[in-house]
Specification:
Blueprint lengths: L1 H28 L21 E2 L6 E19 L2 E3 L7 E3 L6 E18 L2 E15 L25 E2 L2 E9 L2 E7 L16 E3 L1 E12 L2 E8 L7 E4 L6 E4 L6 E10 L2 E17 L12 E17 L8 E10 L6 E3 L31 E6 L5 E4 L1 E14 L2 E13 L2 H4 L11 E15 L2 E14 L18 E14 L1
Parallel strand pairs: 10-19, 13-20
Antiparallel strand pairs: 1-2, 2-5, 2-26, 3-4, 5-6, 6-7, 6-8, 8-9, 9-11, 11-12, 12-15, 14-16, 15-16, 16-17, 17-18, 18-22, 20-21, 22-23, 23-24, 24-25, 25-26
């Protein structure tokens, strides 16, 4: 009996050993990891959507957007063109046909936050690539102008609008890189078409600080080239005038006050006009090249946003007024628009051209115009831009906006009265009004439609004869209806 039990126990031990051997061998063949495997985790300390990069304390948030836009424009009155063969000196342009345009695009954003013992270092990059067609026809001056005649519209003229929107680093109140200008306030927040006023992305070095609760102050130096319009001349057709060299950066300051009732901001900027005028000896044998001259222009702006909780929790109204002398780019609108804007990136020196009320009347915006007396002096322009906008939420997902901008440019009499063969500059007035409706059926998905009307008026040439019955008006005008539909999804 003893022998039988012992033999049985030995067999059972042997079987148990044999059954566990394969598992032990398999474990021996798989080396244990030197360090535990790390996976990306949420970074709640920086906000929703951030995650940590494995093995680091860096927090990232990735995003982007995709959009498609359809545009329709109709210019029922193309204004007047100077025509010396007529008694009035003007001839009415033929109405231009309607045109269809638009495009599509996508963008990506990367937001990075790195917590350190001395504070958080932030970085941000956003880029957009888009393709658009339409509104690319040259005006009579040979310059592509999206607000000029549409008669040469080519639906197959697709153009690449790829751009770097922003790329900056931020630490302890300092911002370095390409970002929204410190000067800006409204910056086309509620409209799809660009309005007049300032809306610029530019290279900068800025410092922001809070002197007290609810008050934010900012000082910056910004890229002078991003705030340049044209330099004109009213001396001779063969002469030339332009900016000379890089120039000093613009000095910009802003003060913003935020309260439960809304917020307000005042901004100021100084802009160097380092210009050069040149004429061949055959034109001015006794007048040498005027060379480079330096003077300073400036811009000032005030903005006010008023919350309207009695109408709806998110309803608000914005008013903004801007004045500039020798710095017209602070008035003329978005410096980096897509195909639905009024600017043509192929000619960055011509920021937001005017509606072609009278193409021969030098329908561009100048920072200054070189005149003959004293020789080579560049007379600074002056102008204004007023913006008003109202946004109302009918439901949490349906909202509408009404908006308007009023824009004007003025020049000295000497700048407006050019020599023979030189039109000189023209005073200009422009009014744009419009409205839109947007629907967000799903989070970050927007469907919107917008209609706008723009009228531009340019002062007539001194040679015109408005006293004659058949003369053109002293302020020949052109108008344009436009509409657009956009579908956009942010993620």
């Amino acid at each position: 009996m003893r022998f039988s039990l012992g033999r049985t126990a030995g067999v059972m031990l042997l079987l148990l050993k044999l059954s566990t051997a394969p598992a032990a061998w398999a474990a021996d063949r798989i080396p244990a990891p030197a360090t535990p495997i790390s996976f990306a985790q949420s970074c709640d300390s920086q906000g929703a959507g951030y995650f940590t990069v494995p093995g680091t304390s860096l927090c990232l948030r990735l995003g982007g957007m995709g959009f498609s836009q359809f545009d329709l424009r109709h210019a029922p009155l193309a204004g007047f063109t100077p025509n010396p063969g007529t008694p009035a000196g003007f001839a009415r342009n033929a109405p231009t046909p309607s045109a269809i345009g638009g495009g599509f695009g996508a963008g990506v954003t990367i937001d990075a936050r790195l917590p350190t013992e001395a504070g958080t270092i932030s970085g941000f990059v956003s880029a957009t690539t888009a393709f658009g067609a339409g509104f690319m026809s040259p005006n009579p001056a040979g310059v592509y102008n999206q607000r000029a005649s549409l008669s040469g519209y080519d639906p197959n003229a697709w153009r690449n609008f790829t751009r770097l929107d922003q790329a900056w680093l931020q630490y302890a109140g300092w911002t370095a890189g390409r970002a929204q200008s410190v000067f800006d306030f409204y910056a086309d927040a509620w409209n799809l078409m660009p309005l007049r006023g300032s809306n610029a992305r530019t290279e900068m070095l800025a410092y922001r600080f809070q002197p007290t609760s609810g008050v934010l102050a900012a000082l910056a130096i910004e890229n002078n080239r991003e705030r340049r319009n044209l330099v004109g001349q009213a001396i001779d057709p063969l002469a030339s005038a332009d900016y000379a060299g890089a120039g000093a950066p613009d000095a910009v300051a802003a003060l913003r006050v935020d309260t439960p009732f809304g917020l307000g901001q005042i901004s100021g900027a100084a802009h160097e006009l380092r210009t050069r005028y040149a004429a061949p000896p055959s034109i001015a044998p006794n007048q040498p090249d005027a060379g480079a001259t330096t003077q300073w222009g400036f811009a000032a702006q005030g903005g006010l946003k008023v919350n309207l909780p009695n109408i709806s929790d998110a309803d608000a109204m914005i008013l903004q007024a801007t004045y500039a002398r020798g710095a017209s780019a602070y008035l003329t609108g978005d410096n980096q628009p897509l195909f639905g804007g009024v600017n043509d990136p192929a000619h960055p020196g011509i920021a937001n051209p005017r509606l072609a009320a009278a193409p021969g009347l030098s329908s561009y915006d100048y920072d200054c115009v070189t005149i003959s007396q004293p020789y080579g002096r560049c007379d600074k322009s002056s102008g204004y831009a007023l913006v008003a906008a109202f946004k109302h939420f009918w439901t949490p997902t349906v909202s509408s906006s009404l908006f308007a901008s009023f824009f004007g440019m003025n020049y000295s009499d000497a700048a407006r009265t050019g020599a023979a063969g030189v039109n000189g500059a023209t005073n200009y007035r422009e009014t744009s009004v419009g409205g839109n409706v947007t629907w967000t059926p799903l989070k970050n998905l927007m469907l919107g439609g917008e209609v706008a009307f723009t009228q531009g008026k340019a002062a007539g040439l001194p040679s015109a004869a408005p006293s004659q019955p058949s003369a053109a008006p002293a302020w020949p005008a052109a108008s344009e209806w436009s509409g657009r539909i956009r579908v956009q999804h942010n993620f």
